[in-house]
Amino acid sequence: MAARSVVALVSVAEVVAGDLADHLERRGHDVRQARQPWEAESLLSAGGIDVVVVGDDVTQAEGRELLKRYGGEGGCDFILICRPADLVDKVLALELGAADVIESPLNVRELAARIGGLLMRRGRNTQELIVLENATVDLRSAMVMHRSGAEDQLSPGQVALLRLFLASPRKVLTRDDIIAAAPAENADAFDRSIDSRIVRLRRKLDTETITTIRGAGYRFDPPTPRTD
Questions:
Q1: pLDDT the model gives residue 89
Q2: Domains, the chain
Q3: Do 48 and 30 meet the contact criterion of CB atoms below 8 Å apart?
């Protein structure tokens, strides 16, 4: 199993840090926090950090100093949070090699996505994303991320069932196929209980891509990519 990626949060506001850590940990990343720049020195010098998020409670000079010492070739990727008026500081951070600079107030889910993009470029992203009509599914973390911003957790049985459909697009799967390849999490997964599993999965994914073929079974029709 690949090692978990590590994200360090340095002087990120407590409410943002809590929400961001929750997002990242549920997606299979480790999160470490330093409340003050001097704590960050110890954390970053120990190594093993992939991405560093520096909050706007840190002065821009302190943030740039951390970036110079621990970023760059072979170092951590840095995301600096700045206030909207700090245009010069934003440009300086980017010129020094910051991977990203974002303004506060920020959207935690967007920040988590930016971190995921950096980890992907480092070859450390553990996501396996499936895009449906109204939600995106990360199969590895078993998370359903709805367009509304709400999130749901898939059970192991639901992940196995979804993987089975993804492996056989536009193919009708019988109840026997489903029982053999994606058994339920309890002993009563026979006949009509398969219907219940499909209904619950459709509801959690908010999708119409899994169709009931009367008298035959079920079929997954991948959604048409959105053009808007």
A1: 79
A2: 6-121 (3.40.50.2300), 129-220 (1.10.10.10)
A3: no
